[in-house]
Specification:
EC number: 2.4.1.-
Keywords: Glycosyltransferase, Transferase
CATH architecture of the largest domain: 3-Layer(aba) Sandwich
Protein name: Glycosyltransferase
Shape: globular
Distance between the termini: 55 Å
Largest sheet: 8 strands, mixed
Family: Belongs to the UDP-glycosyltransferase family.
Structural class: alpha/beta
Number of helices: 17
Number of strands: 16
Helix content: 25-40%
Pfam families: UDPGT
């Protein structure tokens, strides 16, 4: 097996502005896009309530995916509590009247994304140029109007999945901050693809190589982001994630939802290239430093939502560290065969389990599986699970996950070891670090078609729950839990970085 090493390359990056792809991996044939404005508050205040303040005003522009919006909301909360006025701008085909949170100095606006209200949210991702051209105009108009107010914005914090936002903000004279909601370990791979210093193989089955990146362990093709394994796979996703580096060097500052102690070697390399600061983990304060007393979830605090008591009551009836929690995120959709195999594996282990299964996926479970588990009280399948509450519960023993970055950070912050079943995008690379770098979990081994047998899933679950390696994983994740809390607590590395940004505008 050869090693694909990076070599200096002087190619100018190509500007290729393409928003998201919603076509899942071959094993995930369908998906449901959540309403990115699901956090809409139930009570509103006049948008002029905070206009009289002399605090610095920043705009926050998240990519319209819930997994990208949530970390943006969390940063907005912390900026607000440190004295800034924040305007959260959401590109949507669902117009909402502006409103200001009762809890934070955060005002939410929607801008038009070029699509009609009756069109499925997936349409914008299948017609990227329509999204880009319309959202560029809408963002330009919004910032131009906002600059005429009594407290005009001084900076734009944007998701680099939308590089056009940087161009708009620079043209209008704003300080521009790119905020990556994915880890540096994924961004570094994307960067080298954009620069041409890593060549995606023509065929992943011919002459498989190991990829060598600065500050990384060697990566097999199965460790790479899904689109980086073979040319032409996931073309829309490829353009989306790689194009974020097309103009990134023009950004005044780059933030990332991670913390220094988690990716020290990668952070050091990235810091030599760009003005980068880590400000994570962006998990609700209740589960970290508890300095924002209202911050219990990813909403803006106006909803008084309570966790699903039926799920938590069931969990409370189980012994400590005895329950296997299973969830594959809001987008991943396992094949019928894989869902049934996973169900068989979980049952085979003999552990109690809690499995979050969307309504669209429930029919893939084996006939009678849900009813038998409930009747015999060894398992619960729920369509919605309060994940943070579950991960923080004493009864939870491990987390079977797709290794999405938000889920990975949540488990890490709450000290729960992982069984990784990555599906696509950055998830395989996250899984590599989970198993071989941080040593806080184990990754299942799939066959060449991506299928994982029930024996393999069961082996991994048992290893994490009761194996000798599992004990070490639990110790390691507890250490990272402490480091995560220290980073975001008062005086921690991430907290200081946020303070330095706030000081620019106060």
């Amino acid at each position: 097996m050869g090693t694909h090493r990076l070599t200096p390359h002087c190619l100018q990056p190509t500007v290729n502005l393409t928003p998201p792809m919603t076509t899942p991996s071959p094993s995930t044939p369908s998906t449901t896009i959540k309403d990115p404005l699901r956090f809409t508050v139930s009570t509103t205040r006049s948008i002029t309530d905070f206009m009289g303040t002399t605090s610095g005003h920043v705009l926050v522009f998240p990519y319209p995916f819930q997994g990208h919006i949530n970390p943006m909301i969390q940063l907005s909360k912390r900026l607000s509590k440190k004295g800034l006025t924040v305007t959260l701008v959401i590109a949507s085909n669902n117009h909402r009247e502006p409103y200001t949170s009762d809890v934070y100095s955060i005002t939410v606006h929607t801008i038009h994304d070029g699509f009609l209200s009756h069109e499925h949210p997936q349409t914008k991702f299948n017609e990227p140029q329509r999204f880009i051209s319309s959202t560029t105009r809408s963002l330009t108009d919004f910032i131009s109007r906002d600059k005429l107010t009594s407290n005009p914005p001084k900076a734009l914090i944007y998701d680099p999945f939308m590089p056009f936002a940087l161009d708009v903000a620079k043209e209008l004279g704003l300080y521009v901050v790119a905020y990556s909601t994915q880890p540096w370990l994924a961004s570094l791979v994307y960067y080298h693809i954009n620069e041409g210093t890593y060549d995606v193989p023509d065929d992943r089955h011919e002459n498989p190589t190991l990829a060598s990146f600065p500050a990384f362990p060697l990566l097999s093709q199965n460790d790479l982001p899904s689109f980086a394994r073979e040319k032409g796979s996931y073309p829309l996703l490829f353009e989306l994630v790689v194009s974020q580096f097309s103009n990134l060097r023009r950004a005044d500052l780059i933030l990332c939802n991670t913390f220094d102690q988690l990716e020290p070697k990668v952070v050091k390399w990235m810091s030599d290239q760009w003005p980068v600061k880590n400000i994570g983990p962006m998990v609700p304060s209740k589960f970290l430093d508890n300095r924002l007393l209202e911050d219990k979830d990813y909403d803006l605090g106006d909803f008084k939502t309570e966790p699903d008591e039926s799920v938590l009551r069931w969990l409370a009836s189980k012994p400590a560290k005895s329950v296997v929690y299973v969830a594959f995120g809001t987008l991943a959709a396992l094949s019928d065969k894989q869902m049934k195999e996973t169900a068989a594996a979980i049952k085979q282990t003999g552990y109690s389990f809690l499995w979050s299964v969307r309504d669209s996926e429930r029919s893939k479970l084996p006939s009678g599986f849900v009813e038998e588990a409930l009747e015999k009280d060894y398992g619960l399948v729920a369509k919605w699970v309060p994940q943070l509450e579950v991960l923080s519960h004493d009864s939870t023993g491990c987390f079977v996950t797709h290794c999405g970055w938000n889920s990975t950070l949540e488990a890490l912050c709450l000290g729960v070891p992982l069984v990784g079943m990555p599906q696509w995008t950055d998830q395989p690379t996250n899984a590599k670090f989970i198993e071989d770098v941080w040593k806080i979990g184990v990754r299942v081994k799939a066959d060449e078609e991506g299928f994982v047998s029930k024996e393999e899933i069961a082996r991994c679950v048992v290893e994490v729950m009761d194996g000798e390696k599992g004990k070490e994983m639990r110790k390691n994740v507890e250490k990272l839990k402490v480091l995560a809390r220290e980073a975001i607590s008062e005086g921690g590395t991430s907290d200081k970085n946020i303070d330095e940004f706030v000081a620019l505008w106060t």
